[in-house]
TrEMBL record:
Lineage, highest ranks first: Bacteria, Bacillati, Actinomycetota, Actinomycetes, Mycobacteriales
PANTHER family membership: GSR2449 PROTEIN, YCII-RELATED DOMAIN-CONTAINING PROTEIN
Protein name per its UniProtKB record: YCII-related domain-containing protein
Signal peptide as annotated in the record: none
InterPro entries (alphabetical): Dimeric_a/b-barrel, YCII
Transmembrane segments: none
Pfam family, one: YCII
C-alpha cells in the first residue's frame, strides 16, 4: 500500500491550546500507529508543525484519516499537505 508524507503546519499563537490538547492528539496518533495506518510521526523541532508517514490506499484516504486527528478537529493545524512518498532505502522501504 502506498505511503504518504503528511505535513502539518501550526499557527504559533495556538501553542498553549495545542499543549492542552496534546494528550488527546498523542492518544489518537498512538492508536493509529498500533493499527498500522500511521507508520511514523513526529514534530519539527522548531515547533512549526509535524510530519506523519501514513499508509493508505490513496491521498484522499490519507487526508480523511488525518482529518480525524484531535488537533485537526479543533482547528489547531493551519495547513495539511499530503504527498505520495516512495522510500527507496531504509526502514520504511
Amino acid at each position: 500500500m502506498p505511503l504518504f508524507a503528511v505535513d502539518y503546519r501550526y499557527e504559533p499563537e495556538q501553542t498553549d491550546d495545542r499543549e492542552a490538547n496534546k494528550p488527546a492528539h498523542r492518544e489518537w496518533l498512538s492508536a493509529r500507529v498500533d493499527a498500522g495506518s500511521i507508520r511514523s510521526v513526529g514534530p519539527y523541532t522548531d515547533g512549526s508543525g509535524a510530519l506523519l508517514v501514513v499508509e493508505a490506499a490513496d491521498s484522499d484516504t490519507a487526508r480523511a484519516l488525518v482529518a480525524e486527528d484531535p488537533h485537526c478537529l479543533r482547528g489547531m493545524v493551519s495547513e495539511v499537505t499530503v504527498r505520495e512518498w516512495m522510500p527507496v532505502y531504509g526502514a520504511l522501504a
